[in-house]
Structures are given as structure tokens and as C-alpha cells.
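Researcher: I'm preparing a figure for a lab meeting and need a structural model of a single chain. I don't have an experimental structure, so a prediction will have to do for now. The sequence is pasted below. Please return the structure as C-alpha cells so I can convert it later.
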Amino acid sequence: MLRAAPSLLRRSARAYSSSSSHVKVAVLGAAGGIGQPLSLLMKNSTLTTELSLYDIVNTPGVAADLSHISTHSKCSGFIGEDLSKALEGAEVVIIPAGVPRKPGMTRDDLFNTNAGIVRTLAEACAKSCPNASFLIISNPVNSTVPIFAEVLKEAGVYNPKKLFGVTTLDLVRAKTFIGQLKNVDPANVKIPVVGGHSGPTIVPLLSQSGHEFTNEERDALTHRIQYGGDEVVKAKDGLGSATLSMAYAGAEFAFSLIRAMNGEEGIVECTFVDSGVERTDFFSSPVLLGKDGVQEIYPVPEHNEYEAGLLEKCLTDLEGNISKGVNFAKSA
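Model: Understood. Here is the structure written out cell by cell.
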């Protein structure tokens, strides 16, 4: 079996001194349902020195509102043609921009609109902050990350160590649902979730959680983790998708990356990156983060026969998702 990666770490950004932090963070899509709470979490963190917010509307108001919060970071808002100004000097760029999922929609249904948005933002990033780390939240992540990569390649500035698809919400849901089922603190649940970031491409390795499950519990948990977003879309009754939980997950990954950039060692997160772990060009598995982004990519942790079946289904779907993104980028 493949060797296991170190335990995934997660700690609050408020626990760290701002003395070692000198990071400018840009949020693209900052006035949206994910962008606003994500920006709030970043403003509240001691890890952010400067926060640059961009969207097509309303961003100056969001920035003015956040700027009244009594934390040390500076906050600015940009709209419309000011994208290059928003990106100037950014070291971490978080991208939740795009349209939300509605009832009955899959992540693939979002592709045509969000793919164009991501391509435009990638072109701007390639010109204004090519050395930044890019955290892609815009769905479908399985396709938008390859689009972003292709744009950077075309511009001659692609660094695979600094491009991340944020799949953290899948881990957050897995920890939460296991905690609820087993009546334990979700913060103490350790579980890798590998593959991609939609439906069957999400593979929770429940066998590595330290908990025992009946086959019925295993099947139900797996399905709920894979399709947890549908619960939120249905509960919001057409008024949106997962925004608050996605903002939380996006901020948690950003905090981990910034801590690693600041020199903290041993930070491991599952994230969708340019990877040779499996047969697909991009894959989410445990990744050791470092000062320059990806420091080491670990193989898929040990898993049982049931999970091996899930993984094979994941890879088949993931190949198609990635190809769709690459073809879109190359057809522009």
C-alpha cells in the first residue's frame, strides 16, 4: 500500500502573531455570496496585512464596511476596469467569482459562464501578479483550475507550485458529518478526502478516520459528503448555494498557506493541484505546504477495496472534467 501522509493540520489564524505576517491578499468576486464572508474572515485574521477586494459591482462599499473592523490590515475595494490595480502586489489571490448553483444544477451546468470569468481573471493575474499563489474556488473546480493553468502557460508564467483548487469544504463536511454521527468534536476528526471537487470525484477515505462504520453508515456518509452541496441548495430554496461554509473552508485553506509562506513547517492540506499521484493531470491528495507553495505531494493514503472502487470512478469522471477545462482554454 502507498505510505500515508502526515496528519492534516488545522488551527485558527487568530492564534498567530501578526509580527511574521506581511501578506497582501486579493479576493476576486469579493461582493458575492462567498466573497463577502470570506473577506470578513480574512480581515479578521492576523495573517493578512493588506486586503484588496475586487468585483464588478459594490466592492467599494464592502471594503469601506470591512475597513471599520479593528484589525491591523488595510482594506481597499476595486470595481470594473480596476482589476489590475486590485491585483498589484498581491501575494495570495483567492477567486470565488462566478454564478452560484441553483436547484437542479450540477457543477457542470455552471461551466459555460464561470469558465469565461475564470479565464478573464487568469489573464489579468498573469499580467499583474504572476508570482502570486492562486486559490481557485469558482466552480466547477475540476475544470476551472485547468483553465487557469492553461492561461498561465500561454503567458509563460505558470508555476504549478502556486496554483490550488480549494477542496477544503469536502474535508470540512466530512469532519462535521462524522462528528455528528459519532458524537465527537469535528475539530478532532482527521480524514483525508481525495480526488476532485464534485459528486463522484470526491472520495472520502472513511477507513482512515479512526472510526468504525457499518456498510449502511459508510454508504450514507460517502453520499452525503459527495453531494453535501445539494442539501444547501435545496434548503435555500433557489436562493443560493453553499456560501458561508465555502467561505469558511476557503479562509481555512488560505490561513494554512499563509502560515506556510511565513515559514511554519509541517502544514498538510488536501488540495487540487498539478499532480503526478494518479493518471489525471490534476488531483487532490495531501500536500505539504511551504514558503513557495507546494513543497511535496503525497500519494493517496491507504484505502480499502470499497474506496478503491470510488477512486476508479473518480478518475474516469475527473479525466473528462479536466479535458473540458483544457479544451475551453485552448479554444479561446
